[in-house]
């Protein structure tokens, strides 16, 4: 079948994207597969200024998953646009910039700058920064804050589609999704990591210097599927599903509960050719299942 | 000397690699004869991917990421290992059991499938005419086997191996015979003090003759080498063993702070080898990474 | 060292309890170990009337975890007290009743009935039922609702300690914890399961007839540890920690982040002697680590 | 007849078991010769725990939960298997590869540690003087091997085995020779129709002579047997293979609805064997449990 998916003004040759923070700036994976064989590339979260991130250690393995507290180390949006973007095959594969800021103005400034970059296909807004002004609650944990950021980005994004990335660490993810939708989001991506921690009883220290980090990987797939399922029934926006995907089967599980596209995250660490392998295996699996089009399959979970 | 290293550390180019390959286990041999599995020593031979020696080939000090297919999701990550030797159809690594990943690797069977990517990272400098001191802390011996074979004048090399398990477990017979060597077991406080004295006098000596010092081993060992190298103004390179999730510069989980660099640098792509004077071996990291 | 722990008016010979719903009514495990070697037994959730639970299938395996949507099938509190409790060695090991109801009055009625039962050492309140009157939000997801239930149970519990069991499916678990504490809870137990789902792309059906279920097992340990850590710093009440515990090491991880006792849940399914084994292994591990007393270890994570 | 079953199904007593034991693999043999691993057939011999035959011993139709120690957390649950035979120091099960757990079991090595608990559940009725029809759907043969050996008059037994893999993979040689048997392969629609006719005439016959019918196999097979047994008013007992997390009545994950019972009953402790007229084999469960 034709794997092509169109939504939010984007056209992807297949629904396999990569997840921000797990695929570097894309170039790191060029030796392991053909970047243009992917549906799209979401790069590491970008801030206005370069960021050093959190102290080490900042990754730890957990059962069927991992914790990270990288703290958004990145080279800053300017160096990304100047040094990395020109090397990416952006005319053949959509490159999506993941934005990170700690107030609405900063988000808007990032959006404005990126709106002018031809090589950027869309903006993905990471709203998991704590808003200090709002008492430290994360933007992504409060519908009003989420709406604020979405509107600010949307106002400056010009023609670029705005994807809002949601956190699962909330009482009701559909409330945040609705707020982002009402504020103008073109698509939603979910889920970001679950808040978690790990400790070492011998050193009596946390395994992450930052103490708390984000849980990702196969362990969280049930949570990701549930969130996508709930949001896809509550909000009329295309959804990009992620969380624990590590096979073509997992991709179809997400699409079956309502996702239009998916992102491969932690699984890229299991083997750097993972996203390429999954993209290559997808047609065969669809044929085996007798699926003829995305429309016939997407969201078609029979209850 | 360290131009090569510094170029890599500039975080621009993607180091060449043969990509991600499924290969098979040729042989797994335990080299020590202790009773315990913990801390045991092993040589693992994998079928060498044909692509591995093409192009730029590999250089001693580089490493590979290894993940047996049978691991499914547990452990999750691949594990990094120095390339001990690669040639004659064999990719050899020398490893010690320290946790669940290395413990699981002792169950590998010939013919079993293993995913490997590499060669990764930068390499130790080779200065053909310089007396070169190889400082190995235990399993840190691994890269020096390949290094010794690739060196144009092996008689300029001197290897000092500090070790805890019996020396018989270390495959010193794999080294070219012409290499001078000394081994020192660290069983008690006294041994350690003695080894540290030895280390210091060697480092001081190589500083004097403007020799090259290369070190590979656990963090505390590297710290000791670093301190002495700074003290005697020796030219030393340290191979770091930070925890790695991806090995290719994508996760930013392996970083270390380097003098003169604004952002923490990736040990997997910009290292693992750094000049002793550049790298900050933070105590906090050591406590946590090597319990 | 002396493994004894005292809190909330209870004295446990060791901190190893079993988690509700994973240890039946206790008796099922008698062939696999000495029930009196445990710190305590928390039995399957009890409602006033017997409940048939959800349709099948209601369990599914997931990476390093499982989903369940048992739907609180149980024989009802009366048959528990009449048929099961007399067979349990309650004079030698505290038996804790886990209560389940869908409004505050029902909770109060359960508490009142159980307050009179000599064999019941404490009441654990499961507030993960959706409150239909409050628009279907779970009691455990709203601080006011949580307080309401806690106060209602506490008012009727007489001398029995009241343990409130918290859900991790909230934006801020400390807010719920504080509400329960202010309403009179004697201790808190956390975490209950994470909301999740699983699907089968071949049958195109959810793997649970109920569609959504609760995720438990090793996969969720990082989330449980994080919740216990956060709550133990926010609220001055003893905490019973759980979520993914499957070894003596895991027990000490929970105690190091602030728990007074722990519960073994899903791990009981890995082998039915699991809780007994962990209780037996604990002294050796403590000795190996040089721990001399709980006071010296509990909450003593060095940051 | 079914007093025994009904007593167990009353959900009062805890059925006797030998507890949870760590034992070792003695032998693992593949019995079929197909190429594919999927659907392959295996005999697994474990060292029989001494306690296993003490007390009430075990009875055919009972099962064990098996979990290799090497599984750590993946797969998470143990897997239930009928006891094929237990005696002479060996606990034998006969299994088919259908998913990741059974696939992983094909890697078991002699000497490897396995956690086992059982015997669990109730047993097939034994009526010493009644002609008894054993209906096995594929791997459902497993409990009938022990049943045949334990029966006082094996010549009163007749075994009908419907199978998809070649019959040579089924260890019929393990049955007492005196047992009458018939096998029917189901390769195509026609085969199945033919097998169903055969099944029906046998069930009708045993209904007529008031014989006993015991069935073990996949859900669709059990449904067919159930329908016919009801139609001909035959006395039939069905062994259910619901998904089980604990096997001991603790998780309530394996339940089924039984006529006359207010609450769903636990297949692991109150079954797995039920009278055909009592049990509700819901279509929804079948679709999901056997994909
Ligand atoms: C570039 C590089 C080259 C290496 N070369 C070799 C080699 O040639 N031979 C060899 O035996 N080992 C080598 N190591 C170390 C090896 O990667 C670790 O011993 C291994 O990953 C531990 O895995 P585990 O699952 O057994 O331990 P875990 O169970 O994960 O951890 C056990 C202990 O090891 C520490 N640890 C875990 N992962 C790492 C890691 N990636 N680096 C350092 N410490 C870790 C943990 O903090 C813990 O104290 C190298 C590491 C690096 C980064
Ligand atoms: C009392 C009892 C006795 C059994 N005796 C035998 C026996 O003697 N020999 C034998 O080969 N098998 C027997 N089974 C079935 C066996 O337990 C399953 O085939 C096995 O658990 C599948 O595990 P898996 O990981 O390979 O499959 P999974 O990967 O878990 O699943 C693969 C497929 O098998 C189905 N399945 C998974 N678990 C079960 C389960 N517990 N019961 C039924 N279907 C399941 C799934 O729905 C799926 O369609 C018995 C089951 C029960 C309940
Ligand atoms: C090491 C690491 C770094 C990440 N960095 C980012 C980031 O910069 N921005 C972002 O939106 N998400 C980031 N994430 C979250 C992932 O994009 C993804 O939402 C999450 O890991 C769940 O998907 P997975 O289970 O497939 O990994 C990061 C995840 C990991 C593991
Ligand atoms: C099959 C099953 C049934 C459960 N039933 C209950 C219950 O009746 N009441 C309750 O409070 N928690 C119930 N739980 C939640 C557990 O008590 C526990 O909070 C959760 O599983 C997390 O711990 P674990 O990861 O150790 O299993 C149940 C869990 C499982 C797996
Ligand atoms: S290991 Fe991932 S960036 Fe170095
Ligand atoms: S398998 Fe757990 S109750 Fe039957």
Automatic annotation (TrEMBL), chains A, C:
Gene3D superfamilies: Aldolase class I
InterPro entries per UniProt: Aldolase_TIM, DHO_dehydrogenase, DHOD_1B, Dihydroorotate_DH_1, Dihydroorotate_DH_1_2, Dihydroorotate_DH_cat, Dihydroorotate_DH_CS, Dihydroorotate_DH_I
Positions with a binding annotation for FMN: 20, 44-45, 98, 126, 165, 191, 217, 243-244, 265-266
GO cellular component terms listed in the entry, alphabetical order: cytoplasm
Cofactor binding annotation: Binds 1 FMN per subunit.
Residues the entry annotates as binding substrate: 44, 68-72, 126, 192-193
UniProt KW keywords: Cytoplasm, Flavoprotein, FMN, NAD, Oxidoreductase, Pyrimidine biosynthesis
A Gene Ontology molecular function term of the record: dihydroorotate dehydrogenase activity
Broad class of enzyme this protein falls into: oxidoreductase
Residues the record marks as active site: 129
Location of this chain's protein in the cell: Cytoplasm
Record-linked Pfam families: DHO_dh (PF01180)
Keyword Cytoplasm found: yes
Cofactor names: FMN
Reactions this protein catalyses: (S)-dihydroorotate + A = orotate + AH2
Domain Dihydroorotate dehydrogenase catalytic: 3-285
Pathway(s) this gene product operates in, as recorded in its UniProt entry: Pyrimidine metabolism; UMP biosynthesis via de novo pathway
EC number, as in UniProt: 1.3.-.-
Annotated GO biological process: 'de novo' pyrimidine nucleobase biosynthetic process; 'de novo' UMP biosynthetic process
Oligomer status and interactors: Heterotetramer of 2 PyrK and 2 PyrD type B subunits.
Its biological purpose: Catalyzes the conversion of dihydroorotate to orotate.
Family: Belongs to the dihydroorotate dehydrogenase family. Type 1 subfamily.
Protein name, per record: Dihydroorotate dehydrogenase
Gene: pyrD
Automatic annotation (TrEMBL), chains B, D:
Gene Ontology molecular functions: oxidoreductase activity
Entry-linked SUPFAM superfamilies: Ferredoxin reductase-like, C-terminal NADP-linked domain, Riboflavin synthase domain-like
FAD-binding FR-type domain ranges (all copies): 18-126
Protein name: Dihydroorotate oxidase B, electron transfer subunit
Native source species: Desulfonatronum thiosulfatophilum
């Amino acid at each position: 079948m034709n794997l092509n998916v169109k939504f939010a003004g984007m056209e992807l040759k297949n629904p396999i994207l990569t997840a921000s923070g797990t695929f570097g700036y894309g170039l790191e994976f060029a030796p392991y597969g053909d970047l243009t064989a992917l549906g799209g590339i979401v790069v590491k979260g970008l801030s206005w200024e370069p960021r050093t991130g959190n102290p080490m250690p900042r990754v730890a393995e957990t059962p069927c998953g991992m914790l990270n507290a990288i703290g958004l180390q990145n080279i800053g949006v300017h160096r990304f646009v100047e040094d990395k973007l020109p090397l990416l095959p952006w005319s053949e594969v959509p490159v999506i910039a993941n934005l990170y800021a700690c107030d609405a103005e900063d988000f808007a400034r990032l959006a404005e700058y990126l709106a002018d970059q031809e090589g950027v296909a869309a903006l993905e807004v990471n709203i998991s920064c704590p808003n200090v002004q709002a008492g430290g609650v994360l933007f992504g944990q409060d519908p009003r804050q989420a709406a604020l950021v979405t509107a600010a980005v949307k106002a400056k994004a010009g023609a670029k589609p705005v994807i809002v990335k949601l956190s699962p660490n909330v009482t009701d993810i559909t409330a945040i999704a609705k707020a982002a939708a009402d504020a103008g989001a073109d698509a939603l991506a979910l889920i970001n990591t679950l808040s978690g921690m790990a400790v070492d009883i011998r050193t009596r220290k946390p395994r992450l210097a930052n103490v708390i980090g984000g849980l990702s990987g196969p362990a969280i797939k049930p949570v990701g599927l549930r969130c996508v399922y709930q949001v896809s029934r509550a909000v009329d926006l295309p959804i990009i599903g992620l969380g624990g995907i590590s096979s073509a089967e997992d991709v179809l599980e997400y699409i079956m509960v309502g996702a239009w596209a998916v992102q491969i995250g932690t699984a890229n660490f299991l083997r750097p050719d993972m996203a390429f392998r999954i993209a290559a295996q997808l047609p065969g699996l669809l044929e085996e299942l007798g699926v003829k089009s995305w429309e016939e399959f997407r969201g078609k979970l029979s209850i | 000397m360290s131009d090569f290293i510094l170029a890599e550390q500039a975080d621009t180019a993607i180091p060449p690699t043969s990509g991600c390959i499924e290969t098979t286990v040729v042989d797994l041999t335990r080299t020590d004869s202790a009773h315990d599995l913990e801390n045991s020593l092993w040589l693992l031979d994998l079928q060498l991917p044909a692509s591995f020696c093409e192009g730029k080939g590999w250089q001693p000090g580089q490493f590979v990421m290894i993940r047996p297919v049978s691991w499914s999701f547990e452990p999750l990550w691949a594990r990094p290992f120095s390339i001990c030797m690669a040639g004659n159809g064999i990719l050899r690594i020398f490893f010690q059991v320290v946790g669940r990943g290395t413990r699981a690797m002792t169950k590998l069977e010939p013919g079993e499938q293993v995913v490997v990517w590499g060669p990764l990272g930068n390499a130790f400098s080779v200065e053909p005419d310089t007396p070169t001191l190889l400082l190995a802390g235990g399993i840190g011996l691994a890269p020096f086997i390949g290094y010794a074979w690739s060196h144009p004048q092996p008689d300029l090399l001197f290897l000092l191996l500090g070790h805890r398990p019996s020396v018989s477990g270390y495959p010193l017979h794999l080294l070219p015979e012409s290499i001078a060597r000394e081994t020192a077991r660290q069983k008690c406080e006294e041994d350690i003090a003695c080894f540290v004295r030895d280390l210091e006098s060697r480092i001081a000596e190589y500083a004097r003759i403007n020799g090259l010092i290369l070190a590979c081993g656990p963090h505390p060992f590297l710290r000791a080498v670093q301190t002495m190298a700074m003290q005697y103004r020796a030219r030393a390179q340290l191979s770091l063993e930070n925890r790695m999730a991806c090995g290719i510069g994508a996760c930013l989980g392996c970083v270390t702070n380097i003098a003169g660099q604004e952002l923490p640098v990736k040990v997997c792509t910009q290292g693992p080898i750094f000049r002793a004077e550049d790298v900050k071996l933070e105590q906090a990291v050591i406590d946590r990474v090597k319990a």
